[in-house]
Amino acid sequence: METLVRLGSSAQLTPHEALSGVFGSISLAAWIFLLVPQLIENYKQGSAEGISLAFLFVWFIGDITNLAGALWAGLVPTVTALAVYFCIADFVLISQCLYYNYVNARRRRKESAVSAQTESSEEEPLLRRGSRSSDNTGLPGSHRRRSSTARSDGGGTGRTASLPSITEEQPRTREWLKNTISIFFVCAAGAVGWAIAWQSHAWKPAPEEGAGNPEDTQPMAMGAQVLGYISAVCYLGARIPQIIKNQRDRSCEGLSLLFFILSLLGNATYGAGILFHSLERRYFLTNLPWLIGSLGTMAEDAVIFVQFHTFGDQSSAVLDA
Hints:
- The protein is an all-alpha fold.
- It has one domain.
- It is built from 11 helices and no strands.
- Helix 1 (about 15-35) crosses helix 7 (about 160-200), helix 8 packs parallel to helix 11 and helix 9 runs antiparallel to helix 11.
- The protein is elongated, with a radius of gyration of 26 Å.
């Protein structure tokens, strides 16, 4: 995080340091808006069944240890404030998910009770009427075959069968356009924010390792370093429950694609911001936990993108059935 805000240095700005600052600022913008798409998706769906609570809780632990490490290492106040913001945002999303899960579980229990009462009261008349149509309804899988045949026939015309695919393409195009515009504005906001901070001298290039005040080059406290590694492990492990859930359900319904795109953008630009600042060995080792946590999760995000692509059509087919 120390690549995002640097104060009190008189070092001359170099292209690498400028890129480090821009990437760090874009990463900051991505993290600030990261959870907003999933909050909106949950609100629109009125449900949080698509997202794994284990994913959110492990991520929350990662943000807590990140905050503790920032406090222990004595990082600049802006970094600590951001760590606090991340914890609050995690808490809000977890609370929303728990609320929707509770409300929907309660509603399902009520519907099940009403359905059980209705079935018991209508059981005898249905059995009498069912004896006349038992030739059709008694065949296992007959409903499934009829529904699949109807979908394949498309009402007898190939033209009607192609209509769902046309109507499905339009929402997908709109979604990708919306996501592209959102990413553009996040990148623009990060770049403009860095330019304003640079012009107002709120952001200044940090000196290379070994230059300037010797106090600035003292190694990070061991405890803070350990917390950083714990945070990295949590970030790496958090997505595994979500990947397993998507694979088990064979669906990404209820997940916001923009949420994971912003995560990928934030991780990529954060790692780039660190590496563009310096490749000096001690600096690299100091930031290694955060590099592992940021760049390592990109591979897991890629797996989730593959799941979005693989299960997208199947999810819509299940919903249409």
